Amino acid sequence: MSALGFGCWAIGGEWQGPDGSPLGWGKVDDEESVRAVRRALDLGVTFFDTADVYGTGHSERLRGRALGRHRADVVVATKWGNLFDEESKVLTGSDDSPAYVRRALTDSLGRLGTDYADLYQLHLSDADPERAALLRDGCEDLVREGLIRAYAWSTDAPGRAALFAAGPHCAAVQHRCNVLQDAPEMLVPV
């Protein structure tokens, strides 16, 4: 996997929260987005991170289209947990139920044009830890079935990260850490 990854939130285009607030990066040119993904691949980027909710599915569809025959050459990460309406492009809520994990993955794999995800990430940073333990166990089932290779939690809470990390196939934690948002509690070696 390349040291640099390509974040696919922006290529999802416009979408909004239930209150009408914008959640995307504005209008995008799909052909330019496809060219950007392919150029990143040409430059050696092999890690592509998206989520089902980015552009209410549009980011996954574009990422799948752009990489097409190069699927085996890249690491594909996507996320689940948010509910949305693809038609109206509106975030409608969230679902942290174990039953939703499989349905969300099936939908994502269809949009991505693949039969497995390399990394599947819970996208609800503040999900209930007891419920999350069930989700972690559900992800283990998905690994055994070959539908995902590994899983992670997108959270800024060390305790929640540790809960997922207890799973044998937990491979990552996605959290904020940049020049504007330091996260020393997430960087302590375990």
What's the helix and strand layout?
Layout: E1 5-7, H1 30-42, E2 47-49, H2 58-67, E3 75-80, E4 82-85, E5 90-94, H3 98-112, E6 117-122, H4 129-144, E7 148-154, H5 158-165, E8 170-174
Parallel strand pairs: 1-2, 2-3, 3-6, 6-7, 7-8
Antiparallel strand pairs: 4-5
Helix pairs in contact: 1-2, 2-3
pLDDT average, as an integer?
Answer: 93
Largest sheet: 6 strands, parallel
- Distance between the ends: 23 Å
- The largest sheet has its strands arranged as 1-2-3-6-7-8
User: What is the general shape?
Assistant: globular
User: Which spans of ≥5 residues are poorly predicted at pLDDT below 50?
Assistant: none
Number of distinct beta strands: 8
Helix content: 25-40%
Percentage of β-strand residues: 15-25%
Count of DSSP H/I helices: 5
SSE ordering: EHEHEEEHEHEHE
Structural class call reads: alpha/beta
Rg, nearest Å: 16 Å
Structure explained in plain terms:
The protein has 190 residues and is an alpha/beta fold. It has five helices and eight strands; from the N terminus they run E-H-E-H-E-E-E-H-E-H-E-H-E. The strands form two sheets. It has a six-stranded parallel β-sheet. The protein has a two-stranded antiparallel ribbon with strand order 4-5. Helix 1 (30-42) crosses helix 2 (58-67) and helix 2 crosses helix 3 (98-112). It starts with a strand and ends in a 16-residue tail after the last strand. The mean pLDDT is 93.
